[in-house]
Amino acid sequence: MSSDPADNDTGGTITRQRPVYTESQVIMTTVKAVIPFVLTYGLFITFHGTGSPGGGFQGGALIASVVLMMAFAFGIESTREWLSNALVVGLGTVGVAIFAGIALVPMALGENFLEYTAYYPVLGDILGLKEYEFVKYGMEAVEIGGIALIVAGVLMGLFFALAAGVTPPNDTTPDTESAADTGAASNTNTMTGDIDTEGANK
Amino acid sequence: MSDALLPLLIAIPLLAAIFPLLLGLRFDRAGWPVAMATSLIVAGLAGRLAWAVSPASSGPQQFVHDLAGYPAPYGIELVGDGLSAILVVLISVVAVAVLISARTTGPDSNAFYSGLLLLTGGLLGMALTGDLFNLFVFLEIVGLVSYALIASSDDGRAAYGALKYLFLGTTGASLYLIGVGYALVATGTLNMGDMATELAAVGYSDPLVQAAFGFMLIGFMLKIAIFPLHTWQPDAYTYAPDTVSAFISALVSTTAAYALIRIAYDVFTVEFFAANPLITDAVLLVASISIVVGSLLALLQTDLKRVFAYSSVAQFGMILAAIGLQSETALFGAIIHLVGHGLMKATLFMGAGVLSSAYGAQTVADYAGLAKRAPITSGMMAVAGLALVGIPPSVGTLGKWFIALGAVEEGSWGVAAVIFISTLLTLTYIGRLLEALYFTQPAATDDDTGVAGDADGGSIVADGGDTEGSTAGDGITAIATERIVVVVVLAISTVALFGAADPLAAMLDPVFGRFFQ
């Protein structure tokens, strides 16, 4: 940063206004009271969705909103440090891996992509489920292990990336490595890719 | 089980896209090896698919994979036939080529390689899906990743170009989705094969069916960048990093054009065109205007990447014209031209990337006399440029010849004349480049400011890499040898494919048998 972003007294030049964190008892108490319910509701929505209203996307968004609320109440930077970059990246990427794994294992068993009933001969006796129930629980697994994790991870990552803001590319940053990363991070907000580059700056 | 190749081709790059990010937590440079290994695997699978559907192997020439085991009209199916196999091979070859040259050029972040893998997976999905809504999903994956990759340059203008592309590209995808919605209302199905029979039952002159095709056509014209819907393309291609412009110019519009061919001939079929002469004429008219205006605009540009971008507008106009002609010959030419244009533009953009890294050359004037200093790269750009004009022997000749022949067979003399005019115009703007490269003495002062003025010149070119003799002079930045090798191989492939008309025709024979029963 060439100038202190929080400094508003540089007459003439327009500086980026970074919202300064103010500690508020009202917000902190409210958030503390609300988040257990939001998290429970998020999990509730996530675990429904195959046979009842709900779904991984909506549930994942609610779970991510818990982190967003904590960030507003306790400061974005401290929430980011508490949560750690690896966790945010891990949520998104492991979600994709679980989804792809569930989809690809049936192919290894000689069935079609995403064909849940292929698990029946292998896991049917162990889990004590009937063949048609594998469709339901297979979808449930994709929803909980795949979509909910991906959506939660990506939303948190996008939030932190947006909160960190964009460093202008012509900035006089000491090391070129982080300048290149900032360029990528500021521009790849449309995909999950920004999570790690973003965090690498901090 | 050759049909298992279809989901694997799509799932492997999409799954691999997480590893640059995941490994990036621990290693700084995990992206390139992961992306390269994945692309090689994909290229191997693509080769197997092409072999399996080719007449040389004894198996069936079309593979269908029902996702989750649900049969066709209800489930989503992936279809691999001769036409999609050609596209899949093109995508995987260009992906490998781009990655080879990306090793030293970057943008060197793990997120970039994730994006490149996601884009590859999305393009393969577009080429292999047999479901109209699934096509929209992959179209969106391709679009979103393209916007991010274009913006991955440090240049603020790249972000602007990407934003423009985002607005227009999303509009295009939405128009396509509206078209799919109309078709769904008319037929009650989303499966391409099933919809073809249902549309025939509904009747091709039904306003709902006409509107569905109209929306899909306009949506794809935006994605393909046909004049006057091309405005996103020059900025996107010009300001994107060299690696990205080579990849996107070679593949993204190409795959969208493939999807339009698939929808026009496999879903709506030639009978739809026969029943709606007005739509056919409109397609031919818009395509002809795009050819002429695209070529003229290319002629007016000074920035070389912008010349190539407008040239794409003209070349895709030619492909759209071939789609409207409903002639087997012209469509064969269109498919050859899709492949050829992809390879030629990849060569030209990568060649331009090499010369701009080494000498900071951006405008056509900057290229003055570079043939003496970089004979190999300049020579290969000249080969690809002449192929684009259509000088034999080259793949460009084949494509243009068959499209023009189809136009003459159908009695569309206007289209044939437009193609002829466009060839002359292409010769003019490629001639400008050749004149600068070979017959203009570099003005010493101009050249110096060109290099010095480009602040990024030093930072683009990275580590190690053997210095090629021809580019070593005058304290100019060294270029990794493999970047030049890739340009050479791609340029030679545009010439070598001149002999590929017969094998391609054999491969497309069953597909065309279905298109033109």
Automatic annotation (TrEMBL), chain A:
Keywords: Cell membrane, Membrane, Transmembrane, Transmembrane helix. Residues 27-156 form the Na+/H+ antiporter MnhB subunit-related protein domain. NCBIfam families: PRK12505.1. It comes from the Archaea. It is found in: Cell membrane. Its main location: membrane. It is a multi-pass membrane protein. This is Cation:proton antiporter. InterPro entries: CPA3_antiporter_subunitB, MnhB. The keyword Cell membrane applies. The chain crosses the membrane at residues 26-49, 55-74, 86-109, 144-166. The keyword Transmembrane applies. It comes from Halonotius pteroides. Pfam families: MnhB (PF04039). Residues 171-202 are annotated as: Disordered. One of its GO terms (cellular component) is plasma membrane.
Automatic annotation (TrEMBL), chain B:
Keywords: Cell membrane, Membrane, Transmembrane, Transmembrane helix. InterPro entries: CPA3_Na-H_Antiporter_D, NADH_UbQ_OxRdtase, ND/Mrp_TM. GO terms for molecular function: NADH dehydrogenase (ubiquinone) activity. It comes from the Archaea. Residues 130-426 form the NADH:quinone oxidoreductase/Mrp antiporter transmembrane domain. Coiled coil: none annotated. It holds the Pfam family Proton_antipo_M. Its main location: membrane. Signal peptide: none annotated. It is a multi-pass membrane protein. GO terms for biological process: ATP synthesis coupled electron transport. GO terms for cellular component: plasma membrane. It is found in: Cell membrane. The chain crosses the membrane at residues 6-25, 32-54, 74-99, 111-129, 135-153, 165-188, 208-232, 244-265, 277-300, 307-325, 331-361, 373-391, 411-430, 484-501. This is Monovalent cation/H+ antiporter subunit D family protein. It comes from Halonotius pteroides.
